[in-house]
Amino acid sequence: xxxxxxxxxxxxxxxxxxxxxxxxxxxxxxxxxxxxxxxxxxxxxxxxxxxxxxxxxxxxxxxxxxxxxxxxxxxxxxxxxxxxxxxxxxxxxxxxxxxxxxxxxxxxxxxxxxxxxxxxxxxxxxxxxxxxxxxxxxxxxxxxxxxxxxxxxxxxxxxxxxxxxxxxxxxxxxxxxxxxxxxxxxxxxxxxxxxxxxxxxxxxxxxxxxxxxxxxxxxxxxxxxxxxxxxxxxxxxxxxxxxxxxxxxxxxxxxxxxxxxxxxxxxxxxxxxxxxxxxxxxxxxxxxxxxxxxxxxxxxxxxxxxxxxxxxxxxxxxxxxxxxxxxxxxxxxxxxxxxxxxxxxxxxxxxxxxxxxxxxxxxxxxxxxxxxxxxxxxxxx
Length: 381
Known about the structure:
By secondary structure, this protein is an alpha+beta fold. It is about 30% helix and about 25% strand. One of its GO terms (biological process) is adenine biosynthetic process.
């Protein structure tokens, strides 16, 4: 039998190694009610099971159900939340990043799970994160059926954490949205973002650190502190997009052809992913003004416009592509639901000469050999 060395005390426990099981249990107790609030009749069992259970009987009513799945995190935005010790907004960011990818194909997100890795479980902090996830799931009509909190002492600092999530949705095969539906003459409709959302924070953080600005700095252009602006939650578009599908695509007529979720890579790259080969969307920058936070990042960091456009959403978080005859109805429906929207461009046949437009022209992105996007004009002032 090997005795303990002077550097290794006898009786090492999991707690002395840095993992507090009881704290994890307290965190679960604090978040249980928020999680249960997302449950509907299809969710079986309670919180704390080894697996989340979802009654899939409703899929029997589909002629040919297709399951859609997505997973994501929120990137380095968590560093802002940790610095400000405000954690409930991160949950909204996580849900938006995951479920809004699913609705791009017209799928309804059914349920979601989350994963939180942290250096130390602080029950109230973990519960805040999960409460935010649950709130956003409720907005999206998605059940939060399970999750995991893992304590990683020595790998993450005491106040550090990261979050990830995954969701599953369903769409009828003949209702699937995508590039094959998009036609020349379609109108490109922008839906306003709530701010930076959850992409590009490595650039944003570098800019504000270079400028020496503190997160508690009051910024008149923003009407609040810099930190409050940077933590503005990602807008969750799922319910609004699905409502738009139901209102426009019915009675055998389907004028809504696709969506594009504007995340990493910016507007042009993500829009190009949902266009077919041979077509090009021409987007007119003059149809909207850059929100103040994007102007601020550009000015503080001297960031070139091309770099801004391939990194940040610049005020457009989701895009819908509809037939010209349905554009007014789509805009009216979205604005009735409180989603600020406008026509920002049109789809046409790819113009070979557009390829000479330099960074204003994007064709193919993220491994998708699809259509192209041409950005033209200057942003409104």
